[in-house]
Give the backbone structure.
Amino acid sequence: MSAVLRPALTALSMLLIGACATKPAPTPVALAPLGPCPASTWKPEAPPPALAARTSMVLLAVQEWARFGRQTIAFTVTPPRTETAGVRERDAPERVRDYWKSVDEPGRSGRDDIPWSAAFISWDIESAGVPRDLFCPDQRHAIYVERMALRARQPGAAFIPHRPGERRPEVGDLLCASRDGGSTTLDNLDRGPGHCDIVVEVRPGEVHAIGGNVGDSVTRSVFPLDAGGFLSPISGRNFFAVIENRLPWEG
């Protein structure tokens, strides 16, 4: 081998070795601790509709869905299809304001173009009579889900997050997904954008869940289940958790 080629080959070998080396995993960004659940002076507008909190959660979700015209979107087809159109947020701004009040944002309403789905879930669970030591309301899904995950490590937890392949959805559970290109998972609670719905019915091959700010309304979404009764992956929702509801149930 000539003296001219030897240095070039040596350099090429070093480049190939470097390309094959495993790159170190990025260091997770440290998030500030959430701290205790903030106090609030907000009180539900009416007593829970049932003695059992889990039952009340479902009844309240169905009640609000009816109030908003029973909008229904089927995610069992591609692209998702709106089967029934309902009342839009701008046509019921004061009701959306009621949801915002539950997370101490009384100045917001259905005319603000600010996502209110987490406020809806917070309003529902608080109105069902669930105490703050079991559920801490928040205007962001990622924050209350993170608190649920932390609370699940303690005795008496009411909400237990599971990966979608680990739990079949049941009535009263929450279905949570990341959105807007977010990367949130139960292993990476990065406080990214998300969305949760409350399961109100389970049928063979599909689960029905109600959430706020879906199609600018309170909407009943129909999601497919696989043969084992677990959530099927769909392009319309990037599910990362099925949150088990252990609250009392009347049924």
